[in-house]
Design a protein that fits this description.
The chain has 620 residues and is an alpha+beta fold. Among the domains are: 117-232, Alpha-Beta Plaits (2-Layer Sandwich); 321-588, no CATH class. 59% of the residues lie in helices and 8% in strands. It starts with 5 loop residues before the first strand and ends with a helix.
Length: 620
């Protein structure tokens, strides 16, 4: 644990050109590297050729994606240059395409016919069985045409030619029109149907008999099509296995990841350098990963290059890592700035819990944090905030808004409002003084402690003495002394030049600082105000529940009211806690000028390929 962020360590890895992709992937899987090229040669990796070749892959992806199996990323493979590896993968993909195209043509024909027949079966099941012989429709023409159209439910035709014979049929999902008439009238009807997204539903030539008999024929044909589609999918699966399609797609996916994240690594004809930053400050994790992979590579950690600004790494224990969120909202602490995460472990829950004091509602937050933190680590904040809410719920005597179940450890907010408002202001004073003091700690780290003692330290003295005036009037003398201290220090730091200008600027800066500090002090009263608001809203829920004698209604009101309080008050209190941390505490010392460490993400299996395989399986 450290209150200071640590600069990431520079690393350099020398490997063969054939092992370059694999080396970068192995390092990425550690989650501890951020790549940054440092050119040692004028030759660069062959990225433009790879990009050109990926255009062919993207064309194949758009056409065949839904028929491809999920990609299998290679854990290890034969060393090969990236451009050669991609060329071999594309050759295998073309071979699969050549073999699969006839199967796909037949499969897609069957799937299209299947979709039309399923809609036709819907129409036949809704039609009257003795209205007409559908075999007559297939033999119509050329002077009189017969058509079946499918429309969305509720569609209205603006103009129906009077010479047409129309039989409407309403199905479960669509409505249908069986139409007979002259070709010109049919053509005009189709124009009107296009406006309501209606279209022609093909009628197979083999359809015979009334709706019941035709429906049986359609059902038999659908069974045959389902068999043909299963056979086609089985052929595609066999072709995918024969051509090692999952491995081929995995190779391409891995190379695509490489092209996206590694755009400019220095190479020679035989070797490549992988350079960048690592949060593994000892280098042990990177070394173990390379040794386990038996990669032909040499890793070393020279000093940071002179022209590079290292990203900063926050080293915090697991229990304070969720609180890094607050510092990252402002930026990343620089090398000479303090990482406040461990301080916030106590500060944030205290402020949140005071405003959201309730044993039952705090328990809900605690359980939510314990349940969800594995998936979303930031939810770990709910654990400490929930515990703090439970503690202050005991202090205020509130359980799910009910104040008769627990005896308050301190007071009831609704009966003693002034103490509830006053205590947070005292806590705010301590927070402001802490922020000003941490600014002095950072000045010490920067080697500027003496100037800080001459000027900024006097601000703390003035602030504290002004607050103590309400307790002892003699503090006014201390305040006057600190003002003289501040002005003298400002003149001394200015080097004895332009006294009046320096003095005027110092007075203006002092007045602004004091005004901000006093306003920020009063701002912490909002913690007590939101505690009162939370208690008032909970009281409103319990009062409403007590107004009815029906036990079920009381339970419904209490449950619904607590849900509203959890969502509404939880959101408001979270915003207010964040605001106080950022604009009252951080503003005193933290600027966030450091460079963020952005670890390289390892490649993942294509989700779209998996979805395509699932889609194809559903068609079986």
């Amino acid at each position: 644990m450290s209150l200071r962020p640590v600069p990431a360590r520079w690393f350099e890895l020398l490997t063969t050109r054939e092992d370059l992709v694999r080396a970068v992937e192995i390092l990425a899987h550690t989650g501890n590297i951020q790549l940054e090229a440092q050119s040692r040669t004028t030759r660069q990796a062959v990225m433009p050729d790879l990009r050109d070749r990926f255009e062919e892959y993207n064309r194949l992806l758009n056409r065949y994606q839904r028929y491809w199996p999920p990609a299998e990323l290679p854990a290890a493979g034969v060393p090969e240059r990236p451009d050669t590896r991609l060329q071999h993968a594309l050759e295998k993909l073309r071979a699969w395409q050549h073999a699969a195209d006839p199967v796909l043509a037949q499969l897609e024909t069957c799937q299209g016919e299947q979709a039309d027949l399923q809609r036709l079966r819907q129409m036949l099941s809704a039609a009257s069985t003795d209205v007409l012989d559908f075999g007559l429709l297939t033999g119509s023409g050329p002077n009189v045409l017969a058509r079946i159209y499918i429309l969305p439910l509720g569609s209205r035709i603006a103009h129906m030619p009077p010479a047409l014979l129309v039989i409407p049929v309403t199905g479960e999902e669509n409505q249908f029109l069986v139409v007979a008439g002259l070709p010109d009238d049919i053509q005009q009807l189709e124009k009107d149907l296009a406006l309501v997204k209606g279209r022609h539903l093909p009628l197979p030539a083999w359809i015979k008999g009334d709706a019941r008999h035709a429906g049986q024929m359609v059902a038999e044909r659908l069974q045959q099509l389902a068999t043909d589609i299963r056979h086609g999918n089985a052929q595609l699966s066999a072709l995918a296995a024969h051509h090692s399609l999952p491995q081929v797609l995995g190779d391409i996916r891995q190379l695509e990841w490489f092209l996206t994240h590694v755009s400019d690594l220095p190479v020679t004809e035989n070797f490549a350098w992988v350079t960048g930053w690592t949060s593994d400050l000892t280098g042990d994790q990177l070394q173990r990963a390379l040794e386990k992979s038996q990669l032909r590579a040499a890793l070393h950690f020279p000093g940071t290059p002179m022209d590079h600004n290292p990203p900063m790494v926050l080293h915090n224990p697991w229990w304070s890592r969720p609180f890094e969120l607050f510092a990252r909202m402002l930026g990343t602490p620089a090398r000479d700035e303090l990482d406040p995460s461990t301080i916030l472990v106590l500060m944030v829950p205290l402020m949140f819990g005071y405003m959201f004091g309730d044993i039952g509602q705090g328990l809900v937050l605690l359980l939510a944090g314990l349940t969800l933190r594995a998936r979303w680590p930031i939810m770990g904040l709910f654990i400490s905030c929930g515990l703090a809410s439970m503690f202050f719920g005991w202090v205020f005597g509130s359980v799910f808004g009910m104040e008769h179940l627990v005896t308050p450890l301190w007071i009831n907010p609704m009966t003693s409002a002034l103490p509830v408002l006053f205590i947070p202001m005292l806590g705010g004073i301590a927070i402001l003084i802490l922020g000003l003091t941490l600014n002095g700690v950072q000045a010490f780290w920067r080697g500027k402690l003496w100037p800080w003692l001459q000027v900024e330290a006097a601000v703390i003295g003035i602030y504290v003495s002004l607050l103590l005036i309400f307790y002892d009037a003699r503090a006014l003398l201390v305040a006057a002394f600190c003002v003289l201290w501040y002005l003298a220090g400002s003149l001394f730091c200015a080097g004895g030049h332009q006294y009046l200008k320096t003095l005027g600027a110092a007075v203006g800066h002092l007045l602004e600082s004091m005004m901000q500090l006093l306003i920020n002090t009063v701002s912490f009263v909002r913690i007590g105000a939101f505690a009162l608001a939370h208690a008032g809203l909970s009281l409103a829920v319990t009062t409403l529940a007590e107004a009815t004698t029906n036990l079920f209604a009381q339970l419904l009101i209490i449950v619904t009211g607590n849900i509203v309080v959890l969502v509404l008050e939880g959101l408001v209190v979270s915003i207010q806690t964040t605001r106080l941390v950022l604009f009252e505490f951080f503003i005193r010392f933290l600027q966030g000028t450091g460079r963020i460490f952005e670890p390289l993400t390892a490649p993942a299996t294509s989700e779209s390929s998996a979805q395509g395989a699932h889609h194809a399986k559903n068609n079986q």
